[in-house]
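[[Sequence with tokens]]
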Amino acid sequence: MTFAKLDHGIIFSSLWGLDYHVRIVFVTMLALKDENGFVRSSFTGLLRASNVLANELSEALTVLESPDPDSRTPDHEGRRIMKVDGGWLVLNHEQYRTSESEQREKTRLRVKKYREKINDVTDVTLRNVTDPLHSVSVSESVSESVSSLKEGGCKGETKTDFEIAFDNFKIMRKSIKKPLTKMAEELICMKLERLSEGDESVKIKILEQSIEHGWQGVFPLKEFNNGKSYRSIQQVNRARNQYDNVK
């Protein structure tokens, strides 16, 4: 069974100003036509399909087979159907087929573009999250971070590993339908500063932790190493540095 597209423009055509039974018969024939525009039916069969009176069907066929000077389609002098062996031929069938094909092509391109966009976002997210992290500088102080927040959030002039991780976090938030506002970005940056004690590599690990679990916020690291939490190891390293400085 073929699909008959009914263009909404039909209600503005000269056909729509004709008697109701003429419109019913033509729409019925559009529904019955095959891929070549052929309506295989007898007068009796078309009478049953259109559900009109016999004299109404005869009048409708006469009108549809006659020229229409007001028709928007100049082909065939405005005639809409032609009697052929075994039934009727819808004369402007190719116009309908062209319209349907163009619409299908537009839909195909729109779906293709959407899928490519989704694949690009997924590829960037997975690549940046799974790639090994480069060594990072941890010399940035709390005061510098607060200053950067006032100037525009977590962004700097050049992309750092931390900024890449933060971009990935924002992409994850969009994917769960919870995009970050400007205020939320600043609050999360301040919380990252507090949780990491200024250590940029810790900020990155905290962001990756939230991305991996799909968390909306940032939280202390849950990693463990030989039974000790990351925070405990960090405190031990800081104490050793202080001891070395005293020596």
